[in-house]
Design brief:
alpha/beta, 7 helices, Rossmann fold, six-stranded parallel β-sheet, single chain
């Protein structure tokens, strides 16, 4: 069964086409790492999920036959200033649904709000402030996909992530969000 490590504010409902996929939320890095260590055929990650896989790319490539990263980044705050992330955290605690809807709009994703608790989401943003992927090695079998219209992680940041691991870099005409049919297409 293919595995997708989801992004911040993501939910299974964003990917109705991926019925046969195991979808893991990215809110517990240790749980994600445990799933990576279990291995399998295909591991994909979107945004925060792709970032976590990038942090553990050596293990991911050892444990999975194929790895695809959609809109990964080495450090989120290289592309979104820390003060903006902190404003999002404060905003979540005041008007969770508005902050999530605004973020999903910026991603060009459907406005399907996750059921995730506010403090879990806030903790995920705090994690993104401090987390950094220090990837080393060459992994030409890994595919890294970026949207040309991405307003969350610019194409240059995704390209930099791909170059840091010697991965194949692919550009698409889309935003930050990649629908299930796109992900499924790369899985074939």
């Amino acid at each position: 069964m293919p595995v997708l490590i989801n992004g911040f504010a993501g939910s299974r409902e964003l990917f109705p086409e991926l019925k046969e996929w195991e979808i893991i939320e990215p809110y517990d890095e240790k749980a994600v790492l445990k799933r990576i260590e279990a291995g399998g055929d295909l591991l994909a990650g979107w945004s925060t999920g792709a970032h976590i896989i990038l942090k553990y790319i050596d293990k991911a490539v050892q444990k999975f036959d194929r790895v695809i990263l959609f809109a990964p980044f080495a450090s989120f705050c290289e592309h979104t200033p820390e003060r903006v992330v902190k404003l999002m955290i404060r905003g979540l605690r005041k008007d969770r649904d508005k902050v999530l809807a605004d973020f999903l709009d910026k991603c060009s994703a459907p406005r399907i709000l996750p059921d995730t608790y506010t403090e879990t989401l806030a903790g995920s943003l705090e994690y993104l402030i401090r987390s950094r992927a220090e990837s080393v090695g060459r992994y030409p079998s890994v595919k890294v996909v970026s949207g040309r219209g991405d307003k969350v992680v610019p194409i240059s940041g995704v390209r930099e992530a791909a170059e840091s691991i010697g991965a194949e870099f692919i550009e698409m005409d889309c935003g930050h969000f990649f629908g299930g049919s796109v992900i499924e297409g790369y899985a074939r």
